[in-house]
Each structure stands twice: as structure tokens, then as C-alpha cells.
Amino acid sequence: GCVIETRGLAKEYRMGSVTVEALREATLSIETGSCVAITGPSGAGKSTLLSLLGLLDRPTRGTILFQGEDVSRHSDAVLTRLRARFIGYVFQQFHLVPVLKVLDNVLLQLEFAGVPRSRRRQMALEALEKVGMSHRANHYPRELSGGERQRVAIARAIAKRPSLLLADEPTGNLDSANGERILDLLLTLNREGTTLVVVTHDPHIAAQMQRTIQVRDGRLVSEPASVAQGRVS
Ligand code: ADP
Ligand code: ADP
Hints:
Layout: E1 2-15, E2 18-31, E3 35-39, H1 46-53, E4 61-66, E5 69-70, H2 76-86, E6 87-91, H3 102-112, H4 117-130, H5 146-158, E7 164-168, H6 176-191, E8 196-199, H7 203-206, E9 211-216, E10 219-221, H8 224-229
Parallel strand pairs: 3-8, 3-9, 6-7, 7-8
Antiparallel strand pairs: 1-2, 1-4, 4-5, 9-10
Helix pairs in contact: 3-4, 3-5, 4-5, 5-6
Bound molecules: adenosine-5'-diphosphate (2 copies).
């Protein structure tokens, strides 16, 4: 099955009289358990696509099926709940809450996800264990290195066991050794069953995914067969 399927997605940004077509006719499916890279030059529409796949923004046209359900009929409140429960986000800038210790950063996401209080602590500690950060549970983000912060951000994203893990340039702020370790961690999580979508301009990262979706000028380009059809399946 597929975690997410899109048909004819388009996104336009209007700024006064100017309309930017950031994404056009994007049809794709992300299969459960797969790992997919989204690549393309700056301004191509990668972040726009990722925010639509992550249900963070609504398309101008087209449909998104998330776990088989058309999400266009859902209210913002329902979308917020779906994101909190089923989607994990990892960003270039980590976005940890600075006033909360590592463990509390993870616990907060589990609360947002609707996990009962009695189960949160164990799930948070398991996630920190998985990324090799349980020994830092009682530290503040500022006490950690960049690579450690990204590990915690990944623990926060996976603790609720999301159906989809989205990462936007997850190694963009790390040196190459730490970037490599974060990539290995993401690939390990994928092998253990987490569906992974990574936005990256790094061909080395893209090469390690099962599939690459290239975005050029708001259009999806993939393997030659799909290019001919103007779509990615
Ligand atoms: P990428 O992530 O590949 O760099 P983006 O999805 O950020 O590309 O941007 C695609 C296009 O949409 C660019 O032309 C960008 O300037 C434009 N764009 C993105 N976000 C907005 C916005 N909020 N308002 C107006 N234009 C935007
Ligand atoms: P970027 O590094 O791409 O600029 P942002 O911080 O702007 O990322 O986040 C993009 C969107 O994701 C924003 O709407 C933000 O509210 C949302 N967001 C950030 N962190 C989370 C999270 N942990 N869970 C859900 N949504 C998030």
C-alpha cells in the first residue's frame, strides 16, 4: 500500500498581481516502507512539495490521499491531529525547544500526538535509545553538538512511531562525518519499517535512497519511463 498518494497537485503563491506556480501537476505515490529522495535546484519547488506531503499546507489544485483518505475535506484541526499523530518532521535547523531538556522535548511531541501519559516516558526513552542519545536525556539542547541535536530531533520525530518521516535537508547544518551518521541513522530507521522522504540537494544522499524524485521548475521528473508520461508513480 501507499502512505501518501497525490494526483495533479498544484501550488500557486499569489503576491499582489504576481502568481508564482511553485508546483504543477504533481502526481506521485509514496509506498509504505520505502525511502525516497526529493532533489532539484534551489527554487524548484522541493519545500513546497514537502509541505504538501506533510499536510502543512493545502494545494491550490489536486488531491492528496493520506493513508487512503482524501485530506482536502478535513478541517485544519483534523489536519493538525493527523500531522501530530502520523507524521514526523526533521528540519535542517533542528527546531528543538531550547527551554526544555532533551527528554521533555520528546515527551512534548508524544503529548501532541495524543499518547497517554502513562506510556510517554517509556516511548521517549526508547526513541532516545534508538538514536544513541539516552545518556543526554537530562541535558538542554544548547549543551549538545549539532549532530547530537539532530539525533534528538529525530528521536522526537520517531517516538510516536509515525507512518511517515519527512526530513528537509537533515544534514544541511552538519559537517560531513556527522551528516554521514545522521544519514545512516535515517536509513536504519527505514530498514526497520519507517517510510522516509528526504529533501536534499546532495546527490550522495539521494543515491542511497530507493527512489529519487527530481523537481525542476515545479514539475516532477523521475526515471526515463515516467518522464515520458510527465508523471511519477
Ligand atoms: P525549493 O525548496 O526547491 O528551493 P520552494 O518550494 O521553496 O523551492 O519554492 C518554489 C518557488 O515558489 C520559488 O519560486 C519560490 O520563490 C516560491 N515560493 C515558495 N514559497 C513561497 C511563498 N510563501 N510565497 C511566495 N512564493 C513562494
Ligand atoms: P524550515 O526550516 O523549512 O524553514 P520551518 O521551521 O519553517 O522549517 O517549519 C515549516 C513548517 O513546519 C511550519 O509551518 C512549522 O510550524 C511546522 N513545524 C515545525 N516543526 C514542527 C513539528 N515538530 N511538528 C509539526 N510541525 C512543525
